[in-house]
C-alpha cells in the first residue's frame, strides 16, 4: 500500500478539514431547510412552485455535484459509497470501476487549471503533490485529502469521511459494517496454525518488500502470516543472500502485472530452487492493484490471500527450511532504503 512519509500529520489535517466541512454544510443546510418550509407556508395557493433544486443539478443539502478524484483508491471509495453519479472526472490511473470517467488528469503531477476545467465543487485525492491542495483552495474548491491508510481502521474512517463529504453517510456506514462482517468471516475460515507462515511479498525484482508494520502486513498477520523482513524501514530492500537464508514458506508476487514476474521465472533465479516456497510450490501471483490500494476492495485481497493460505498444509510453518539464526539475520539486514508502492 502507499505509505508516504509524514502520514500522521497529513491524516490529521484531512480529518480536521473533513469534520469542518461537514459541520459547515450541516449548519448551512438546517436554516435553509427551515426557510424553505416557512416560504412554502406563506406562499399564495395559486403561486407557481419554485424550481426543484435537483432539476438544476444542485442538491438541496448543498452536497457536491461535480467531484474530481485524483487517485485510484479515492475513486473506488467514491463509487463504493454511492457517489459515482456525482463524479465528473478521475485521474488517468483510476481503472476501477469500469464506468469511472477516466481522463488524462494526473495525481502525481496535478495541474490546477486542468482540474478546474471540470468545474469541480469537490476534489478528492491522496497526496498533496505540488501543493495542489492550497492551489485548489485558493480557487475556492473544497478538497478532501485522504492519505495512504496505515490500518484497516483508517480505511473505515476514510470511507465514512467520503460518505459525509458527498451526502452518503448511511451508505458509507452500511459499507463499513458489511466489510467488517466479511473480513471477520474470511479470517475465521482460515485454519489456525501452531507456527505462523513466513512470507516474502515481492514489490519488484530487486527484492523490495514489506514488514508486518504496514497496511498489507496487517492483512497478512490477520491470516496467520509473518514477514521475513523487519526493521525500522517498513518497505525494505532485502539482499538475495539474506532472503535465501530467511527461506520463506510463501512468496507472493505483486510485480507480475507490471513487470511480468511469474512463479516459473522466480524458480529460475540462482539458489531459489532450494527455497521452501519454491520447492513446495508456494509461489503465488497476487493482484497488485488490490495489494496496493486501501479502499473497499481490500476485502477481495484478503479473500484472495486466505484462499492461498488455506491451500498450504497446516504442518508448514516458519523454520521449515531455515533455522532461526538465518531468519534473524534476514530481519536484521532488511533495513534498507524503501521504494514506495503506488496508490
Structure explained in plain terms:
With 343 residues, this protein is α/β, with parallel strands linked by helices. It has helices at 7-42, 72-80, 112-116, 132-138, 152-166, 169-189, 215-222, 240-246, 256-259, 263-267, 276-279, 288-292, 298-311, 324-332, and strands at 67-69, 87-90, 122-125, 142-145, 197-202, 225-227, 250-253, 283-285. The strands form two sheets. A four-stranded parallel beta sheet has the order 2-1-3-4, with helices on both faces. A four-stranded parallel beta sheet has the order 6-5-7-8. Strand 3 (122-125), helix 4 (132-138) and strand 4 form a beta-alpha-beta unit. Helix 5 runs antiparallel to helix 6 (169-189) and helix 8 (240-246) packs antiparallel against helix 14 (324-332). The longest helix has 36 residues, at 7-42. The protein is elongated and about 60 Å long. Residues 2-60 and 319-342 have low confidence and may be disordered.
Give the H and E element order. Answer: HEHEHEHEHHEHEHEHHHEHHH
Shape: elongated
N-end to C-end Cα span:
7 Å
Strand tally: 8
The helix content, as a percent range, equals: 40-55%
Q: Low-confidence segments, ≥5 residues, pLDDT <50?
A: 2-60, 319-342
Cα-atom Rg, whole angstroms?
24 Å
- Side by side, the strands of the main sheet go 2-1-3-4
Taking the sheet with the most strands, its summary is: 4 strands, parallel
Q: Average pLDDT value?
A: 82
Beta-strand residue fraction: 5-15%
The total of helices stands at 14
User: Pairing-aware structural class of the strands and helices?
Assistant: alpha/beta
